[in-house]
Design a protein that fits this description.
Protein name: Aminotransferase class I/II-fold pyridoxal phosphate-dependent enzyme
Number of strands: 12
Organism: Fusobacterium hominis
CATH superfamily of the largest domain: Type I PLP-dependent aspartate aminotransferase-like (Major domain)
Strand content: 15-25%
Keywords: Aminotransferase, Pyridoxal phosphate, Transferase
Helix content: 40-55%
Shape: globular
Cofactor: pyridoxal 5'-phosphate
Radius of gyration: 21 Å
GO molecular function: identical protein binding; pyridoxal phosphate binding; transaminase activity
Number of domains: 2
CATH topology of the largest domain: Aspartate Aminotransferase, domain 2
Order of helices and strands: HEHHHHEHEHEHEHEHEEHHHEHEEEHH
Largest sheet: 7 strands, mixed
Structural class: alpha/beta
Strand order of the largest sheet: 2-8-7-6-5-3-4
Amino acid sequence: MIGKGSVGKSLDDKVFAITDRAKKAIEIYGKENVINATIGVLYDDNEKLVSLDTVVDTYRNLEVTDIFSYASEIDGDSLYKEAVRQIVLGKNYKDDFIGHFTEVIATPGGTGAIRNSLKNYLNPGEKVLLPKLMWGPYKIMAEEVGASFDTYEMFDETGKFNIKDFKNKVVKLLKEQENVVIIINDPCHNPTGYTLEINEWKEILKFLEECSEEKNIILLNDIAYMDFSKRNLNEYRNLFKNLLENLLVIFLFSMSKSYTCYGLRAGAQLALSKNKNVIDEFLDVNKFSCRATWSNISRGAMALLSQIVLDDKKLENLSLERNRYRDMLYKRAEIFLKESREIELKVFPYRDGFFITIPIKQDIEAVVKKLESENIFVVPLKNEIRIGLCSISIDKIYGLSKKIKQSIKE
């Protein structure tokens, strides 16, 4: 009965299945005896969901109409869009990006931002270029819009970004299709926790500018975890000034991680270009897509963000709160990485963020099964396992790398 374009589509989400097994183990053995490293949200050291006081207080004090009314515009309320501009490009973006044009489209989470971007910049049958180590839903979103994907290796033999393979894959797509759409998940890459160095970004952008002289280049920078990195934001923002007009940058913003409000489902696309026609076109097609799919997003979520970001005192309080939890993550990572080095457990390069990933050369299903027999639940990837540092209390971090190493050896 379904249409031909939907034949064969079904969702097999292994993460949710493993999380369910972890929950059952907790019911049987007690929370203190189970390590659930599958969860992708931030927990404190009592393993309770983190909620930021500034966010909670602001939301509770919203006007009823701000929570229950429709958004004022399909593409998002004006104050929300201004807040997104200030978050991504800085408070002084109007001065810092003179001669540039921007537009913001409000979306349901970062997922909506990704979906809109793939839908409107990939031609049917084209491929989006993704990191080989990636957040899995990128792939099914490409499939959903009638596209497919190719991948670039994340790391070279020195543990740096594999610029050589990245360039090779971009050149390959240049020969095959009209538009080259690329996703770079940075900072705090999911699943490795890698954050690009500024010099690595410079080389990427210089190369993409050269490529844009041949074809349209659309760079999607997934910044869902941006506030959990210690990167110098001014250095990062300066990278995107005065790029060639045929290189369009779309920042994929999400409220979920930085504001710990995963269920409100609020995000945005922010497009930046020196070509006004490109930005006008971006607004038109993505606004159309919004109306054709979710119509508009939660007015309450938009009011929440704008009331915090556009209020200097609230924003300062939020930053202080968030930085404490960011430091908590660094402490967890520091312990895990130190113990891993001591026992020579190989880990992909980590700098910031929620996750650490470990390469597995052995039978990955056997490794995962062995860990689960000890009530340690992780997310298996293709030839890797992902550890959600974000959800493990610090006392359970101690000794975890040793248990993983033992499971790999067996």
